[in-house]
Amino acid sequence: MADVEGFCDERFAAVREALTANLAGGADVGASVAVYLGDEPVVDLWGGQTHDGPWRRDTITNVWSITKTMTALCALILADRGELDFHAPVARYWPEFAAAGKERVEVRHLMGHTAGLPKWTGRFNGADLYDWEKATSLLAAQEPEWEPGTESGYHALTQGYLVGEVVRRITGRTLGTFFLEEVAGPLGADFHIGLPTEHDHRVAHVIPPEDAPPPAPPRHMAEVSWTTEWRRAEIPAAGGHGNARSVARIQSVMATGGGSLLSAAGCERVFEQQSDGVDRVLGTWVRFGLGYGLPSRGLPLPNPRTVAWGGWGGSVVVADLDAGMTVSYVMNRMAGGLTGDARGAGLVLAAYAGLAET
């Protein structure tokens, strides 16, 4: 049997059993899972191994697209304060963005992956991810691949730079700095967009997937996250580092109707639908709100007022406003899928089983 540490309210014993089974059976190497009811943790578990020892309470790892939910939360906060209008043209805040026929692209199009900018079409390589000015300038100059607002096409890496630049233009702060000062810091959450040097020793390297069919990146891309350059850079769509506890703590703000960061009305804006159909990039049915996935035929969730997203390789977060519950799963062994797999789904279902006992 695998050793699992932490605490678990006995109502949610099925979550502990599911994580234990994943670790014992080899589906997971190292992993963490957390469940919040309201703003109180009822599950905080971890276990298994990292590349250099046991997965510990303070182990963190790259969570890929879970980072998008953190970036979306920053934008929602600014909108709630009246500093950002999701229906305004992006060019109101970022004038250079109006180039190449994008003068009518709205901020909500960036949030919902409908802006038509799913990748860089100019000369761009992996090292350019660490050059914020180049990454954003190229996107500002680029022509959309389809009519913005008409359908989604997952902006796997570009979304973070697009939303992040809007945040920077409004606040004068980088996305990572704004997130630290306005979200992670006030909540006491161990999540980082741009990881300081002093946390390097806690990072569990992700284990690349054995196969990564399109549209997922090739498996060698996972190894890029082991590098110092990746950890230091602010990559707001894919470069966040945290664990299940920190992810659940932050996103419990959504499950509690805004918590300490948003008004109830500001939180509800996440449900403003931006697309509902087969995504041009993912090839699966996705329904996007403002920065999060919403329940749909491609993302079946028990309650309609629920937001969720997953990260490349398997990490997942679900925030259920009807139940007031947040579930997060973060691991180091990656599966091939771009936005989650059965391990996370099993833990989420186990959490709902526990909720039924309350």
TrEMBL record:
Does Cytoplasm appear among the keywords? no
Q: Which UniProt keywords apply?
A: Hydrolase
Domain (Beta-lactamase-related): give its ranges: 24-337
Which portions of this protein are annotated as coiled-coil regions?
Answer: none
The record's annotation in Gene3D superfamilies points to: DD-peptidase/beta-lactamase superfamily
Is Nucleus a UniProt keyword of this protein? Answer: no
Matching Pfam families, A to Z?
Beta-lactamase
This protein's name: Serine hydrolase
- One of the record's GO molecular function terms: hydrolase activity
